[in-house]
Amino acid sequence: MAAQNTGNGAYWREHLKLLGILLVIWFTVSFGAGILFAEPLNQFHLFGFKLGFWFAQQGSIFVFVALIFVYAALMRRLDKKHGVED
Amino acid sequence: MDQQSLTYLFVGLSFALYIGIAIWSRVGSTREFYVAGRGVHPILNGMATAADWMSAASFISMAGIIAFAGYDGSVYLMGWTGGFVLLALLLAPYLRKFGKFTVPEFIGERYYSDAARLVAVLCLVFISFTYVAGQMRGVGIVFSRFLEVDIDTGVLIGMGIVFLYAVMGGMKGITYTQVAQYCVLIFAYTVPALFISIMMTGNPVPQLGLGATLSDGSGMSVLEKLDGTLVDLGFAAYTVGAKSTIDVFAITAALMLGTAGLPHVIVRFFTVPKASDARISAGWALVFIALLYTTAPAVGAFARMNYIDSLNEKTYAETPDWMKNWETLGLIGWADKNGDGRIQVRAGVPFEGAPAFDDTARGPSGERVVTNTPTANAAELYIDRDIMVLANPEIAGLPDWVVALVAAGCLAAALSTAAGLLLVISTAVSHDLLKRTWMPDITDYQELRAARLAAGVAIIVAGYLGINPPGFVAEVVAFAFGLAAASLFPAILMGIFVKSMNREGAIAGMLAGLFFTAAYIVWFKFISPETNTAANWLFGISPEGIGFVGTLVNVAVAFTVARFTAPPPAEVGELVEAIRVPSGAGGAHHH
């Protein structure tokens, strides 16, 4: 049990780091590009959309989907590395 | 076949499918009743979660809200999808690893306290009933519009169907019916959107059509033309918001945090075999949700443009049939304020309140006579936002079978959400209250009977609320999200990520978040609605967004109280260690 706990410490730290990175992206595409910086981004265009508007109504959602799958895949690898897969 | 018969056929076929699934998925144990034996495939659970999550409001109202609010409607698009990222990364896998049946059960054990569990049950029941009343109402409205039975009969039919599969099959029955309901609702939502997108832009993918160039020869893109038209008529531009940035931020955050804290969504992830399945299943859920949520802004923009084109500056005689149909139902009203015989679509409300009609005679153009006090502006047309999705196929002139399909899809959306909510209510009663608190000695068989009974009673209460809706249903939706964000979400999150969080901190935090948020909403929505303006709001945050501040209050109070009270016992530390790793989760059972 004690040995497994020290192993979990490293596992948990790496896990938290991954969570941190993914949540920064999550925040940036929605609250950042879609809300706080939507107005300046609206000067740029993508597929006929103003960019800030696009992030708010479509882009952020696509990124959200990608984030969860990336998380699931990287966690599978992390679980395996530390021998804690289910 | 005429449209009425087609609608009966489509709705009848879909109901027969749901009942068939109910009979096939009868259950015999609480494990099956509460969590479908934990044997649901992650992709199927993703579909079921999508149907569970997307309610009558997502299906009927959201595109209409976006059509009228433009950019400001983005709060719902981001808020109701971004919450799934939080759910997948911060809650679902650990709660699945915990391996019990309910959300209050986790809070009770993690905070070693019956009081904490009871507070969680209270939040859960309030949030879920708030929500379910709206679903039953939605069922009634669809029945009355498309099948010409009265709203109350519609609610009773809906109750009967949910009763069959929820009471017989519990979570297992609900899961597989939700999978079927997802297929019906997504087909019903995307088919008309695809047709309309082709008609307007030539591009069959609505997501791309929204950005594409119009095929009317104007050479403008959909959004450019919409911006231009709206500004000409005195509205705000479609792609720029009218709400303040801080309010948009807070509402989006409250909806995201609330989404992640909604019990009926969280428990769906208890049904998959493993913790790692919970992660991937949340991804699938969001894929299936995104299909509808990225279509909605296109539907909204097309609908806004179509309805302005087909009604503005037209005489009553020139207007299409759908306008007269919805006028008959009182959801459209026209007051020819300047007496020119033409309909002016302009910014602002045309008259005070929802239209009231005097049907003793018709107006000069043949329209129903609106008796409301007119306003001073040039706007003449009242249009209920909720009819946008329902009327869209008619507005675009699509064939009758598409209209019938939309009716079936709308019922699927309302019924699937209602069933998920009713299940968490009945589980909270039979498991958290009876088994875990009042009568720990009952057998599994007795508990299952209690769960079925509780589901039956919950359906009757929900039906009653659907037939006699409290006047404030729309207002209390802000309540459900705000309370979930301010109470359950932080308690669960800290339970997983903050090992030192103790009983006293968690209970104090939940109560503080709950009372702060509830007091703010009750004050501005019920006690003093005339002061509900940006000038009076705390930091400029509306009652819809206050749940975000409530979450921060919860966390701040919890940490402060925890600092000055005894740390949690050692077993709790071990429990937290155990749920943080996926290995060693409870076994599955194949269907």
Overview of this structure, please?
The complex is a heterodimer of chains A (86) and B (591). Chain A is 81% helix and 5% strand. With 86 residues, chain A is mainly alpha-helical. Chain A has one domain. In chain A, strands 1-2 form a two-stranded antiparallel sheet. In chain A, helix 1 runs antiparallel to helix 3 (51-81). Residues 1-6 of chain A have low confidence and may be disordered. By secondary structure, chain B is mostly helical. Chain B has one domain: Sodium/glucose cotransporter (Up-down Bundle), CATH 1.20.1730. Helices cover 68% and strands 3% of the residues of chain B. Chain B has helices at residues 3-24, 30-35, 42-53, 56-69, 74-98, 103-110, 114-146, 151-201, 206-209, 222-232, 245-260, 263-266, 275-311, 321-328, 387-395, 400-438, 444-467, 473-497, 503-527, 546-563, 570-580, and strands at residues 332-334, 357-362, 368-370, 381-383. Chain B has a two-stranded antiparallel ribbon with strand order 1-4. A two-stranded antiparallel ribbon of chain B has the order 2-3. In chain B, helix 18 packs antiparallel against helix 19 (503-527). The longest helix of chain B has 51 residues, at 151-201. The radius of gyration of chain B is 25 Å and the shape is globular. In chain B, 60% of the residues are buried.
How are the secondary structure elements laid out?
The complex is a heterodimer of chains A (86) and B (591).
Chain A: H1 2-36, H2 38-41, E1 45-46, E2 49-50, H3 51-81
Antiparallel strand pairs in A: 1-2
Chain B: H1 3-24, H2 30-35, H3 42-53, H4 56-69, H5 74-98, H6 103-110, H7 114-146, H8 151-201, H9 206-209, H10 222-232, H11 245-260, H12 263-266, H13 275-311, H14 321-328, E1 332-334, E2 357-362, E3 368-370, E4 381-383, H15 387-395, H16 400-438, H17 444-467, H18 473-497, H19 503-527, H20 546-563, H21 570-580
Antiparallel strand pairs in B: 1-4, 2-3
Helix pairs in contact in B: 1-8, 1-16, 3-8, 3-13, 3-16, 4-13, 4-15, 4-16, 5-11, 5-13, 5-21, 6-7, 7-8, 7-16, 7-17, 7-18, 7-19, 8-13, 8-16, 8-17, 10-13, 11-18, 11-20, 13-15, 15-16, 16-17, 18-19, 18-20, 19-20
